[in-house]
């Protein structure tokens, strides 16, 4: 992670005004959000100075293989490991002003879609409606056969693995694991939104996980404008038209305030 560029207050305020002006004159605004937007809700990011992986190292990535070879054991381990640092933080988190301001922007007609890499359900809880959770949602389960989703809390875990009430297929937590294909419905929506966007707001993501990082790049190649909101530099900073070097919980409410006037 590169150093913050430590902009002055005036520079940040100027970037916030520029971002608001771009949003005002755009027709189809899509946001790509990442772990950083939930950092102010107390959920640690993976990467970045305070990231879980920065502090503890990256986890082994054999979960998808295990699920395929022994779904019963995978479920037992998943139930046992429901209290990792990230899981606990998500369990107790609430949406922050950044999430609420994004819901306000949607409500006011300034934001047409959110593609989120987050699994924490906080955009939904803040009131956003048009959301694609490209890496799934931790509070849901998904049938690996027909793709049906249901709330985790309504699923009986007496017999493992749980089976789909619709088709009898094996259910898995909706979170997309390393190596697991992204569900088709989510991917199709993301490509469609990237094709429609004339402005992409990239907020709180290190933009290194693909294909998520590809959508703003695709839109930019087609001529869309790009706004980045992140206190630190990322791989997308260089191609962004406006960079707001501030926390999401400060920048997005400030942008929404300007647009309300
Ligand atoms: P990341 O951890 O790779 O990067 C986080 C980014 O957020 C960094 O660029 C950092 O500078 C920035 N950031 C930190 N605090 C911020 C703030 N207050 N406001 C704005 N930006 C801030 O996260 P990623 O790019 O989303 O990708 C990693 C993967 O991690 C995703 O697939 C996601 O599923 C998963 N993840 C999700 C959660 C969650 O659901 N809340 C939490 C951790 C990881
Ligand atoms: Zn099914």
**Which word captures the global form?**
globular
Which range best describes the helical content: under 10%, 10-25%, 25-40%, 40-55%, 55-70% or over 70%?
25-40%
Average pLDDT rating:
93
Largest sheet: 6 strands, parallel
Low-confidence stretches: none
What molecules are bound to this protein? nicotinamide-adenine-dinucleotide, zinc ion
Radius of gyration: 19 Å
Strand content: 5-15%
| Helix and strand run | HEHHHHHEHEEEEHEHEEH
Q: Helical segment tally?
A: 10
Q: Structural class of the helix and strand makeup?
A: alpha/beta
State the separation between the terminal residues, measured CA to CA.
36 Å
- Lateral arrangement of strands in the main beta sheet: 3-2-1-7-8-9
Describe the structure.
The structure is a single chain. The chain is of the alpha/beta class. Helix content is 37%, strand content 13%. The protein is built from ten helices and nine strands. It has helices at residues 9-24, 52-56, 63-69, 71-80, 85-92, 97-107, 122-126, 184-196, 214-221, 248-260; strands at residues 29-33, 113-116, 131-133, 140-143, 149-151, 171-173, 199-203, 225-229, 242-244. The strands form two sheets. The protein has a six-stranded parallel sheet, sandwiched between helices. The protein has a three-stranded antiparallel sheet with strand order 5-4-6, with no helix packed on it. Strand 7 (199-203), helix 9 (214-221) and strand 8 form a beta-alpha-beta unit. Helix 6 (97-107) runs parallel beside helix 10 (248-260) and helix 8 runs parallel beside helix 9 (214-221). The mean pLDDT is 93. Nicotinamide-adenine-dinucleotide binds next to loops.
């Amino acid at each position: 992670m590169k150093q913050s560029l430590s902009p002055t207050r005036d520079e940040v305020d100027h970037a916030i005004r520029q971002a608001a002006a771009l949003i005002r004159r755009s027709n189809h605004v899509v946001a790509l959000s990442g772990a950083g937007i939930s950092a102010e809700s107390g959920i640690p990011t993976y990467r970045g100075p305070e990231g879980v992986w920065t502090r503890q190292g990256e986890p082994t990535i054999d979960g998808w293989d295990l699920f395929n070879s022994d779904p019963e054991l995978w479920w037992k381990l998943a139930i046992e490991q429901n209290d990792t640092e990230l899981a606990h933080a998500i369990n107790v988190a609430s949406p922050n002003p950044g999430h609420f301001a994004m819901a306000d922007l949607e409500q006011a007609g300034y934001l047409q879609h959110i593609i989120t890499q987050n699994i924490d359900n906080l955009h939904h809880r803040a009131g956003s409606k048009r959301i694609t959770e490209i890496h799934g949602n931790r509070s849901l389960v998904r049938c690996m056969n027909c793709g049906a989703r249901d709330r985790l809390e309504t699923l009986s875990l007496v017999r493992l693995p749980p089976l789909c009430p619709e088709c009898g297929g094996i259910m898995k937590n909706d979170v997309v694991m390393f190596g697991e294909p992204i569900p088709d419905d989510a991917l199709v929506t993301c490509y469609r939104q990237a094709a429609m966007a004339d402005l992409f707001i990239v907020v709180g993501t290190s933009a290194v996980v693909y294909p998520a990082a590809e959508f703003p790049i695709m839109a930019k190649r087609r001529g869309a404008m790009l706004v980045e909101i992140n206190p630190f530099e990322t791989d997308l900073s260089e191609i962004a038209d406006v960079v707001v070097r501030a926390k999401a919980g400060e920048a997005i409410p400030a942008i929404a305030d300007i647009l309300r006037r």
